[in-house]
Amino acid sequence: MRTLLTEQELHAGVNRLAGEIDACYGNHPLTVIAVMTGSLVLFADLIRMLSMPLRVGIVQASSYRGGTDAGELVVDRAMMIDVVGRDVLLVDDIFDTGKTLHRLLDELGQLGASSVRSAVLLRKQRPHAVSIRPDFTAFEIADEFVVGYGLDYRDHFRNLPFLGVLEADDLAALSGESA
Ligand code: IMP
Ligand code: MG
After folding, report:
1. Which domains does the chain have, with CATH numbers?
2. Residues with CB under 5 A from ligand 2 (ion)
3. Residue 103, CB-side half-sphere exposure with 13 Å CA sphere
4. Would the N or C end of the chain have less CB density within 10 A of its end CB?
5. Does residue 162 have its Cβ closer than 6 Å to ligand 1?
6. How far apart are alpha carbons 176 and 88 in whole angstroms?
7. What pLDDT score was predicted for residue 50?
8. 118-163 tens-digit pLDDT
9. Over 60: is that where the pLDDT of 66 sits?
10. Is the CB of 37 under 6 A from ligand 1?
């Protein structure tokens, strides 16, 4: 596996991200919501670098598989924190097609949040399927499949402290194992 971002580079990037968020909101209270499961590691680091009064929550969004519409995203509201009249920041691991964030931003608006912005660790340089962009981005990366620092391949590698690129031979080695 090739290292794309080291632990130190990730730390510096998240610190920069926190600085931009602090500059935007000042000391204004904020509700930050982690998109599970990929943003888990970023979220834990980021919330400890922010200085305004925070409420934290999580949301689960998963793409519905097996149906005819492969792009359908199912949002589980069960664990969702109350957002009515709150300024909300949605935190996700990566902006790829952008469909996940687009859908969730819409959902939070419908639930009555007074403002909703988004922060991501990574944005892939590729054509995005939606017109929105994340408000805060730590790193722009090439269109490669990355794992580590929360990001997975079939739920593996989330615990790696660095960000690695999963290449064709890594995938071949993995498909030899039972996943
Ligand atoms: P979207 O395409 O922007 O909706 O992103 C959907 C989700 O796909 C992200 O939240 C990630 O969980 C996952 N994803 C996209 N690209 C990668 C990648 O390179 N590695 C691991 N997960 C990814
Ligand atoms: Mg994922």
Report:
1. 2-175 (3.40.50.2020)
2. 38
3. 19
4. C
5. no
6. 43
7. 98
8. 999 999 998 888 889 999 999 999 999 999 999 999 999 999 999 9
9. no
10. no
Supply 45's token pair. Answer: 């680091």
Instruction: Name residue, tokens 């969702």.
Output: 80
3-state class of 3 per DSSP? strand
User: Exposure of 126 by Cβ count < 10 A (0-12 exposed, 13-18 middle, 19+ buried)?
Assistant: middle
Q: What is the pLDDT of residue 77?
A: 79
**120 ligand 1 Cβ < 6 A:** no
Q: How far apart (Å, rounded) are the C-alpha atoms in residues 50 and 63?
A: 30
C-alpha 167/C-alpha 153 separation (Å) is: 12
Q: What is the pTM of this model?
A: 0.93
Pocket test for ligand 1, best of 35, 91, 93, 95 (most atoms within 8 A of CB): 93
Q: How many residues are recorded in the chain? A: 179
Q: Tokens in use for 9?
A: 């580079």
6-23 pLDDT, tens per residue? 999 999 999 999 999 999
